[in-house]
């Protein structure tokens, strides 16, 4: 591991471009992680880097940004929505919508939620009555 660490600290010929200190912080934020082996840290960083490259390349190839020779946020969010591999990112890369539209959605969710909760309470009461009868 010594040689690898030495090469990592070198400026331009670094094997990984993501900051290892930040990745260590993220890994340590998991309660199951007590100590992080240097090789595990490096491999996690490299895997993350390759994953981000894959996400970017895929989104660019399948997105509209190609026309402008650019990768756009909407290309990334479209990938998260449409491609099964990346669907776990859908919450992190939501489609951009206008604030006004979002507020309307929140209001609707709140209304629907209140109705939904009411129905659930009724069902619970019915079940309790059924148990008493039986």
From TrEMBL:
Function: Forms a complex with DNA polymerase epsilon subunit POLE3 and binds naked DNA, which is then incorporated into chromatin, aided by the nucleosome remodeling activity of ISWI/SNF2H and ACF1. Does not enhance nucleosome sliding activity of the ACF-5 ISWI chromatin remodeling complex.
Location(s), subcellular: Nucleus
Main location: nucleus
CDD domains from the UniProt entry: HFD_CHRAC1-like
InterPro entries assigned: CBFA_NFYB_domain, Histone-fold, Transcr_DNA_Rep_Reg
Domain Transcription factor CBF/NF-Y/archaeal histone per the UniProt entry, residue ranges: 17-78
Entry superkingdom: Eukaryota
Extent of Acidic residues compositional bias: 115-134
Organism in which the protein naturally occurs: Chauna torquata
Subunit details: Heterodimer with POLE3; binds to DNA. Component of the CHRAC ISWI chromatin remodeling complex at least composed of SMARCA5/SNF2H, BAZ1A/ACF1, CHRAC1 and POLE3; the complex preferentially binds DNA through the CHRAC1-POLE3 heterodimer and possesses ATP-dependent nucleosome-remodeling activity. Within the complex, the heterodimer with POLE3 interacts with SMARCA5/SNF2H; the interaction is direct and enhances nucleosome sliding activity by the SMARCA5/SNF2H and BAZ1A/ACF1 interaction. Within the complex, the heterodimer with POLE3 interacts with BAZ1A/ACF1; the interactions are direct.
GO cellular component term of the entry, any: CHRAC
Keywords for the protein's UniProt record, in alphabetical order: Acetylation, Coiled coil, DNA-binding, Nucleotidyltransferase, Nucleus, Phosphoprotein, Transferase
GO process annotations (BP): chromatin remodeling; DNA-templated DNA replication
Name by which UniProt lists this protein: Chromatin accessibility complex protein 1
Region of interest: Disordered: 109-134
GO molecular function, one term: nucleotidyltransferase activity
